[in-house]
Input
Amino acid sequence: MSRRSVQSGAPWEAIAGYARAVRVGDTIHVSGTTATGADGVLIGRGDPEAQARRCLEIIEEALQQLGASLQDVVRTRMYVTDIRRWEPIARVHGEVFATIRPATAMVEVSGLIDPDMLVEIEATAIVS
Output
């Protein structure tokens, strides 16, 4: 079975030794994704909705590079630093996945790699 991966260029990928997304057969795993721009700068500082939207855009780009789309997503996991701010994050997820409806979880964590990051999202897709 072949293995393909894509990198986003985020500075942490080389340091921690991981790929943005890995495809093995028909399954794609997208790593925890934050709202980091191509220049490494956080997008949407202080805005959980903007950060969630950017996370999902990056996930979509990674899926496309591996021959998939958001339609193929079967599971997402959302890590948030303040569960009291869950609603704007959930709303964006709901807009993006309105007809897809993957299994999901939202979990509060004590922090992410940058204290200004409010949300991190990972995804699993199966290409049929």
